[in-house]
Amino acid sequence: MTPDAVIPPAGRPSTAMAPDCHGDVCITCSDVAVAVRIRELVAGRLAVVDTDSGPEEVSVALVDAAAGDVVLVHAKEAIAVVEKAR
User: Fold this and answer.
1) Which Gene3D superfamilies match (predicted)?
2) What is the pLDDT of residues 43-59, one digit of tens each?
3) Cβ atoms 63, 80 nearer than 8 A
4) Helices in 1-86 by DSSP H: which ranges?
């Protein structure tokens, strides 16, 4: 939220406030899920996946996925398996 945001006496934020987005992470602006292929599973229910920007580590704690599967990722969390490896 912007630092100029005013909290009314009732304790509810004003509806006029807008999120302040800076850097790579913004929970309001990053509402897009991306399909990526799992390169390898690593410890801690994590996986290395191939992205347009290169390999990235994401959580696979919510899905039953294996290397080679294509998963839908949102906010570095795999939320669905969209294609199983053959």
Assistant:
1) 2.30.30.140
2) 999 999 999 889 999 99
3) yes
4) none
